[in-house]
């Protein structure tokens, strides 16, 4: 295992709470992470999304100090996290997928145990309130539901008021109400200035919480930015059922749009993807000539739909390898 090149350490080494530069991680000959970079500022939540096996856990484990980079560098609060050095121990925490709660202890005893180990912990009551577990204070951990245990995990991670927090699928197993309550809790932590790196398979969770996000696939970052940036880059979609008697090449060229023919439930459809910097107006500009063409040619646009992208659209397109546009669109000879 090679030692990565590292920038200078110390509290003054950059304003980002979490920093990843050209990170590579190999397992033997297999490249699990292939040169990714991103930063997370204080008071910012960055979501790491990706397909199964994309390299998210490997990246987070590297930031948590369990793995040394094969190449590139990572920094947490200006320090190399490898081996979890003492200067980071009280300032960084994590909610991992598998918690290490003691089933015989009560919820309150569990909180007290963690408080005993923290330098300047939150009050027990505050932790219980934050996690919505006040009425479960005297209940043994073994009797808590899966979602309640996840909330307790979160409470234990934040009671020492860490500056940087890693959340690995923190709402798995929660019902929708508990998930929303947890989102509120997490949003509150970010507002207080915590830097949070979140991995999740719930796209709505990322849409609600992330200031910025990255979507990983096969060890690489395939999309990155704010939710809006990522979605705007993907484009808007105008679609309708292919009109009878109209050939694909007879369809009008629309400004800023590329067209593709696709099958939906055995029917041929036309789908225009509209891109361009003018995200607010581009679909409108593309729609006008389409409607004009339909009017002048006497063509009905059956089941016409216009839709802005969602994060799910982008994710699925990344997962499918981002192949999308059929070449040789309408209007071209
Ligand atoms: N200890 C290991 N030895 C060999 N290969 C590994 C090891 N850990 C992970 N991998 C491989 O590295 C790749 C990335 O795995 P990782 O767990 O980081 O992905 P992930 O994005 O967290 O996936 P998921 O969403 O499924 O949890 C996968 O192909 C996985 O099989």
UniProtKB/TrEMBL annotation:
It is found in: Cell membrane. SMART domains: AAA (SM00382). The keyword tRNA processing does not apply. It is a peripheral membrane protein. The keyword Heme does not apply. Residues 18-243 form the ABC transporter domain. GO terms for biological process: response to antibiotic. One of its GO terms (molecular function) is ATP binding. Belongs to the ABC transporter superfamily. This is ABC-2 type transport system ATP-binding protein. It comes from Streptomonospora salina.
